[in-house]
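Field reference: sequence -> structure
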Amino acid sequence: MSRILVVDDEPAIGWSLRELLADQGHEVAVAASAEEAVEACERFAADAILLDVRLPGRDGIAAIPELRALAPAAPVVVMTAFGDLDTAVRAVQAGAFDYLLKPFDLDRVSDVVARAVTDRAAAGVPVSETDAGTPLLVGSGPAMQEVFRRIALVATTDVPVLVTGAPGTGKELAARVIHARSSRSAEPFVATSLGALAGDVVEAEVFGVGDRPGLVELAGSGTILLDEIHAAPAAVQARLARMLETGTAARIGAVESRPVAARVVAATAADLGGLVAAGGFRAELLDRLRSGSVEMPPLAARLDDVAALAAHFLGRQAARLRRPRAPSVTDAFVAALVARAWPGNVRELRQAVEFAAVVSRGHALAAEHLPPVALPDDVTVEPAADAVATAVREWAAAARRSFGGLAEPDLHHRLLKVAEAALIREALAHTGGNRTAAARLLGLDRATLRTKLRLLGLDE
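Structure field:
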């Protein structure tokens, strides 16, 4: 098989990777620092290197150039538990082949190593340094680390990129970051939403007509973002597919095609694969768009980033209003943010945090400063009541089987205990743990709530 060099200062990780890769037939050497890795490369002809970022002494990324000089054919896979966009970009700039996040998914480790040793020519290409105006994606959790990794990889290329994700997840921001991290960063970034244009004018807006250039020409050698790509009419889809295939496009009514230098980034919240199957989207256009892809996670998948996002939005708002500092936040405020559902994702979170900053009038933000939870106009309590009734019937059937043979089954008391505990937990989550506010929401006095918490075993 192949020779793999593992560089990590945690003995347990070194041991587990050695066991995993040795079981797959690889010969494995382990080093605990960048200096040991350099020494190992001088005597161990590595076919691939797994390299931790945080090492004693010199960090792993700083050592990549020297390791690649000693083992030029060995792809370097960076490993980190503390990744952010800068780390991902530094890794790719230094020539890393891929980017693994801790804690490891061992199947992914196996897959990355297999790709590395069979395709050594796939190592990354450096990208241009970012400037102070680079748009900022905030987050440090696993979901955003994967986004950073994908952006770092696609930004080094000129292939079209498809950015997917639910509304409010930051697809346009991701597109701007891709542009800012690319070699085209000094060129124009042109964005349009195809869903916001009337169907009969989309083609003229994108490709131009007569003497008027379209957006693909106005983007020059920069980047054009086609948001809501699923809304493109069939004729526009066909022209886009041909443009991506040939690198040329013609204005409406023109005979001669012009070279297109702009990079295309498309974005959508729709399931394009499903649309293709239903005949609503061209398969060849989807194939060309997803040469590179970035999926933006919903906020529910990155709740560990909520506190950092709130701080970022508050700082940005303070700067916009020219205030010397942003308001502070309480633990209860952050807990309330984490406990809420955010169907509008990061966009809705930003609006709620900025609303709270206004309501707090410069004081520390607390849970009560958040706007009330907005419900769609067509949502009423009746469907929820029906769902509760169904759940009670199911619970009662299960309870009869479990307790029906007892002298005193007491199903009424048992159900009330279950329901009351769930309702109190929900009230506390909604108020960020503020018992006074929770008691008010429940219609109880605080002493009664305190007693119920104790009796239900919820008084932690």
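Note: Residues 120-133 have pLDDT under 50 and may be disordered.
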